[in-house]
Amino acid sequence: MEKGLLYNFTGNGKGKTSAALGVVLRALGRGWKVAVLQFMKGERETGERLFFQKYFPDTYFEGCGLGRSCKPGDHAGLAREGWKTAEEMLKNFDGELLVLDELNVALAHEYLDVHEVVEALKNRRPELNVIVTGRRSPPELREISDLVSDIAAEKHPFQQGIPARKGLDY
Q: Does residue 93 lie within any of the structural domains?
């Protein structure tokens, strides 16, 4: 077995989750077993969640958040619950790829302890590939990542008053 890699898609630009899901498509195309755990994603119905429910119902795809951090609620508690699941998967998931979507955001808001997360990622099942996404990736996580893509924001429809659109943004 080859050593699993840790990819980190971060930055202020749009496309971090999209990049991770692009890798998921490649992995599924190769017959890999994949799991996706979305931190900070709310109950809003998303195209990716609908896709996995319809076409890959056996793929673990779970949200553990309330959505935007300005929305009231126990963001930290849900992040900690999600992290318990992630820790278990890092040790025992028998697939090849685990996506921890928006984990960087949970770390940036200090809902999770960065040192605990880094240690768990370093001590994951050796052949497990992991993708972490989200803005403001901490230096400690960047340091242990095999790949860091910092996605920059140059222009965004939201800056022109255009809201997020179904099918393109969620």
A: yes
